[in-house]
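Quick question: what would this complex look like in 3D?
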Amino acid sequence: MKTCRGCHRDLSLEEFHRNKNLRDGRETKCKTCRSAVAREHRDRYRGYLVAQTRKYQRENREYFREYNRSYRKRKHETIQAGAGVPERD
Ligand SMILES: [Zn+2]
């Protein structure tokens, strides 16, 4: 048995992921806690990424506007020339 550092339950070792770097070869938090932490971390990170992207786009609005305009123009010209849709670079 081992006590989870997250939920403080006494659980069998099977409830802990293996980690050979740790003294007893098992994680300090049970699988349930580990996955909860991972999920929370992922959600927070995703929120952060979205915020960063929005901030970046807002700060570079002119650049994106110009970029989209030139892409549309290039796409239009390429399609007119019968060469299909160009790759975005
Ligand atoms: Zn736990």
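Answer marked as accepted. The chain has one domain: 2-80.
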